[in-house]
Sequence to fold (133 residues):
Amino acid sequence: MSTDLGEFLGYAIITLYGLTVLNYFVKLANRKLRPQINKNKTFAKGFSLLTKFIVRNHKLFGLLTIVVLLSHAANQFLIYGISLTGGLAASVLILQVALGIYGYKAKKKGKSWLRIHRSVAVLLLVAIGIHVL
Ligand code: HEM
Ligand code: HEM
Fold:
């Protein structure tokens, strides 16, 4: 158990979180910035590959956050004990992943599910901010 490892794992959760949230931003760019993207063929090709990578691996990145979270929490707990802000961020993260799995599995999820899943992503950013800053 080390403080460096704890820090590394903490930032790894944030990196994975960033990759999951890019799902929203790459889709938005594809919708709103089509003319600009298509101006340069090489860039358009690269952006299309990035989009596929981000969208196809969204569930994987989301699930991996839990694995890294558990490692970070165990490591930090053994060094520092309980962290209130860490527990709060973890609760929101677990809720978000549960929502993601529900949305993926549910046959009829409706429009509100995506709205909730997006909003909890913002809430999670706030919770992580409180924990880290
Ligand atoms: C979404 C979940 C979490 C994320 C993204 C996260 C991220 C981080 C990061 C990046 C750091 C390093 C901060 C720095 O060096 O300034 C950190 C520190 C720490 N984390 Fe977490 N963490 C999470 C959950 C937890 C949980 C569940 C615990 C419970 C034990 C915890 C306990 C700590 C402690 C004790 C520290 C070091 C002390 C501090 O700087 O406050 N974290 N975390
Ligand atoms: C850190 C965890 C996660 C975050 C922050 C997150 C965030 C997001 C965001 C912002 C969107 C909206 C994208 C858009 O507007 O189309 C989205 C969509 C979606 N998420 Fe997540 N998500 C997480 C985990 C998961 C997990 C674990 C699953 C399923 C196993 C999942 C399944 C989905 C599905 C099915 C969509 C609908 C659009 C699509 O398929 O790309 N998410 N997520």
Observations:
- The CA atoms of residues 3 and 89 lie 19 Å apart.
- The first helix runs from residue 3 to 32.
- The chain is about 90% helix and 0% strand.
- Helices lie at 3-32, 34-38, 41-56, 58-80, 84-105, 110-132.
